[in-house]
């Protein structure tokens, strides 16, 4: 089964096609410290990928992340799934961070994503699964993560000198698709973790 993965939880947008756990194509565009250009970039990336493959399902990163970026990714995923007549599911972008770390040989740690407003979203994980629930924490209280293995891009986009990030790789669409292929998808309810400013 070919699954289209989409992640828009950071300024680095990614789309991928995964079949039975194997990445057939993966495209990333944007810079972590660059502007949020989800609407301008995502449609082009999807057009390029879908020109070469027929898909059987769509999986979308649910964040946490910026409201507009998540909304853009989810809306595009829903539109493609409707147009193709396939199912669409969501996957936590924190879970995707952990999954990518496992694929690169890592074990346990804390996945972190920039939540803006001097806050980060994070969740711990062990060698096989997430632990607990996503947590939103102000940078002023981030000492609770000292001595943890930190992975993810939060401290690239919100620098914080007292913590060391072992692996700053952002969430990737291939991990979104792989997790969906393992039956770990969930309903399309974005993880904003705060009340959005935009309706």
Can you give a write-up of this model?
This protein is α/β, with parallel strands linked by helices. It contains 5 helices and 10 strands; from the N terminus they run βββαβαβαββββαβα. A 5-stranded mixed sheet has the order 3-2-1-4-5, with helices on both faces. α1 packs parallel to α2. It starts with a strand and ends in an 18-residue tail after the last helix.
Write the layout of secondary structure elements.
Blueprint: E1 2-7, E2 13-19, E3 22-29, H1 38-50, E4 57-61, H2 67-84, E5 87-91, H3 93-103, E6 109-114, E7 119-125, E8 130-138, E9 150-151, H4 154-157, E10 165-167, H5 173-181
Parallel strand pairs: 1-4, 4-5, 6-9, 9-10
Antiparallel strand pairs: 1-2, 2-3, 6-7, 7-8
Helix pairs in contact: 1-2, 3-5
Top keywords for this entry?
single chain; 199 residues; alpha/beta; Nucleotidyltransferase, domain 5; five-stranded mixed β-sheet
Question: Concise description?
Answer:
With 199 residues, this protein is of the alpha/beta class. The protein has helices at 38-50, 67-84, 93-103, 154-157, 173-181, and strands at 2-7, 13-19, 22-29, 57-61, 87-91, 109-114, 119-125, 130-138, 150-151, 165-167.
Share in helix = 25-40%
Contiguous low-pLDDT stretches (5 residues minimum) are none
Please compute the radius of gyration using only Cα atoms. Answer: 16 Å
Q: CATH H-level name of the largest domain... which superfamily?
A: ATPase, nucleotide binding domain
CATH class of the largest domain: Alpha Beta
Q: What is the overall pLDDT average?
A: 90
- How much strand? 25-35%
Strand pairing plus helix content: what structural class? Answer: alpha/beta
- CATH topology name of the largest domain: Nucleotidyltransferase, domain 5
Q: Give the total of beta strands.
A: 10
